[in-house]
Design a protein that fits this description.
4 helices; nine-stranded antiparallel β-sheet
Length: 299
Amino acid sequence: MLLPVISCFIIFMLLLAYGLADRYLIEHAEQVVHTDKEPGTSIGRAMDAQADDWNYTSDEVEIHIKEMQQGDGTDLVTYFVADVKMKDASHLKTAFAKDTFGRNIVEPTSQIAQKHNALLAINGDYYGFRSDGLTIRNGTLYRDEPARDGLAFYADGLMKSFDELSISSKELLQSGVTHTFSFGPVLVTNGEIAGDFEHVKVDTNFGNHSIQAANPRTGVGYLAPNHYVFVIVDGRKENYSRGMTLTEFAQVFQDLGCTEAYNLDGGGSSTLYFRGRVVNNPLGREKERSVSDILYVTE
C-alpha cells in the first residue's frame, strides 16, 4: 500500500516542478493581439551631436544625467536623474528581449539597448513575469488583459496614467497611445503625490508582498510634451544606497516638478543605460538582471 502512495507523491512533485518551471523559466512566445503598424528602425548618434558620459545634445534629442545623493551612513541613498527632451515622440521607443513578446524571455537591459542603437534606456515593467495587463508597444497591441493602473505614452508626447479596467485598448489606440506599461503604482498625478503606498501590491504572483520598503527603483515622470525624467534608485548596498520607499520615490518626482509619475519594475531590474554603459550599480553588485523589456530613447 505504501508504494502507490509514494509513487503518487513523486508524480505530484514532478508535476509541481514542471508547473513552476513552465510559469517562471520556460520561454513562451505569444501571439500579437493586433497591429496595423510596420516595424520601425532605429538609427544611431546624429552627425551633429555633442556628447560625453553624462550628456547628449543634438537637434532632435537632449539628455542630461545627474548622480544624486541624500542622507549619510546607513541612510545614504544614491540615485540618478536623466532629463530627456525630444523634438517629437518618435524618439521614444520600446523593445522586447530577443525581439520576442512572451513569458520568461529575458536579456539584460544594456544588451537589448545596444541591439536597438539606444542612446538611453531603462528597464520596463517586466511584463513577461505575468499573464495580465494591457500591453501596447510601438503602436502594437500585444496583450489585452486589463488588471491595474497603467501608464500610457501618446504620439503627441503626452504621458498619463489610466485605469486599465475603465478604458478599452481600442479607445487607447484611437486616442494616439503608442506605448503602455502595466506595473505601478501611480506615484504622482496632477502634480500631487498619488496617495498612501503603505500596502501597495503590484500583483498576485507567487511570492508577492508589499513593495513599500526601501528598494532599488525605476520610474518615469512627465514635465511637458516630449519632456520626461527617468529616475533610477540604487539600493541594498550598505554605505552606498539603501534604496527608497515608494513615498520617498514619489517625492523625488514631485520635487522635480513632474505632473505625472509612474513606478516601473525595480529591485535587481533597475538599470540605467547611456551610450554604451550601465550608469548605475544594479543591486550594488554592478551586475544586471535580465528583463523582459526596455523603454529607450534613440535618434
